[in-house]
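Deviations from the work plan: none for this task. Representative record:
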Amino acid sequence: MTTMGDVARIAGVSASTVSHVLNGTRKVNTATRLRVEAAIEQSGYRRNGVARSLAAGRTHTVGLSISALTNPYFNSLVHAVERALSAAGYVLIVGDSHDELQSEKRVTDSLLDRQVDGMIVAPAAGSERLTLPDITRTGTPLVLIDRGVDIGCDQVGPENVASARALTEHLIELGHRRIAVLRGLSGISSTTERFDGYRAALAGHGIAFDDALVLDGASSTEAAERQVHALMSAGDRPNALVSLNNAMTIGALKALRALGLSIPDDVAFVCYDDFEWADLFEPRLTAAAQDVDTIGATAVELLLRRMRGDDAVPQHIRVPTAMRHRNSCGCA
Amino acid sequence: MTTMGDVARIAGVSASTVSHVLNGTRKVNTATRLRVEAAIEQSGYRRNGVARSLAAGRTHTVGLSISALTNPYFNSLVHAVERALSAAGYVLIVGDSHDELQSEKRVTDSLLDRQVDGMIVAPAAGSERLTLPDITRTGTPLVLIDRGVDIGCDQVGPENVASARALTEHLIELGHRRIAVLRGLSGISSTTERFDGYRAALAGHGIAFDDALVLDGASSTEAAERQVHALMSAGDRPNALVSLNNAMTIGALKALRALGLSIPDDVAFVCYDDFEWADLFEPRLTAAAQDVDTIGATAVELLLRRMRGDDAVPQHIRVPTAMRHRNSCGCA
DNA sequence: ATGAAAGCGCTAACAA
DNA sequence: TTGTTAGCGCTTTCAT
């Protein structure tokens, strides 16, 4: 393996000069720069990023801890983050927390060990008493994404309350009174907020809240499928359903199809989270679509600012969703 | 920041002892080990992975260069790889090559600079004359995934020819003669092989090959949508279509829906690549499903073997696909 | 059972 | 404009 020392020897200069031509960190005489470049070329030298990171004290690396990477929503979020980061010259290392505290701890520990220059976390339930303090203790800049927790750091996520409320109200305006809801994983803010939006819609229209219509979908396709199947095969089923995230939507659709129930005739349906192929589902889904690109880009922006040493007061940013009006809700 | 030296001082031992208790690399007296552990606890020490990598000469990191990360197929492939790797104690760093040579070069360069211990690449067209030689030159163990190129290294990918042939033959057996095909990005082996399978099916049944029925979908949803739209709005349209990857399938379905054509009545449809939600599409798609988990796990297995120094002759592994018989093809 | 010391390959003062 | 030198924090031989 060729090192900078080898290159220096070939070019007849010092290692420090080689380093400077490589990084453009100081003016180098054109003639010597050319010699160095020739030597690099000739020797097939590649810099050692590990040594570089150790000496410089920064890795140009950012860690992301997130769950359910196979979920298309998180998947696009990861790529929105990656795009913004690589535009800024950073490399992203992703770890899957599986929305489970111990697993999240493993991921963030490994990221911290690798000396990431910054960290973006979609916190699992309970994060604030284990992993988050660990991170802040190291002084690594941190921003929370997708969900918030009550800790002093930057946060970016989608707007939840008003969106879930709007979704529910749409159903109400269509004349529905018995509206079931698929609620997500407990302990995370997005679940609470979206559920609050649902309740607010009912309350705002004088509809009594009925606990029997609340399904615990646990943000999972399988759980949602089971719950919807159970509720819908019982007598006296609701005539409308709102699903509070995309994974649960899939489960709900599977269950409804299995039961032979038609949307929107038997059940009107709306959901939080859009699908890239929403047009190909039958029926086309009325959904509140998150703006993942903005969320990802904003998270990166906030993080880079912190990494530059900015210590302004932490921001909590909410990115609005867009209502996609299609036909699963049952309006013309 | 606390270093190993600090811990050593607190525990009243040498740094080397601290290192050994941390890594279990040599026997340490229980009493001293306890003192060291206490010192670690008390000081909140975290090891510096960068320094560790530099000293040890290995990073416990593997690089993956792949394209179209938002494509669900590649997405699951990435996660299959990640799962296998993290089970073996490695961290995966992923880069998106966008199936474009310069971009692939940027990704692999960055991975190599970071001193990954091994590399998995889904080669873009032309890779064998630019990035791949670069990688082998560094001596970094390499395995190719998804597509092959004629270079002496391990490769794992799906079976293409027989699968595409079976798909096409199914249509033929249903009585179709004018069968259009959506062909993928040119220059990559999977495109060639799947297309070969299509031609072989026609040839095997004495059906003349018709160039006008070959659509260049470029493995992209948009291109496929345009091409299918054009072909299907012209007169004398084919009555069957085979799509050779999932991105193009989406495009085809969009175009057909836009034209108001019904599957399978107006056009029988089969595709290479399955969808997780294939049951929710209308109609349910008859597809050849790749076994991503096996492909990913096999790639990792081959790579780890090379990383251990095995220098057996390179293997080319093909993982069979599974035929999912549903109703877009038009059989009962 | 433990320690001393020599690096790993690079960056960045500080000198010249 | 360039070189010298002292680390960065760890691993690992070689002693003891």
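Residues 13-17, 20, 26-29, 32, 51, 53-57 of chain B lie near DNA strand C (CB under 10 Å from a C1').
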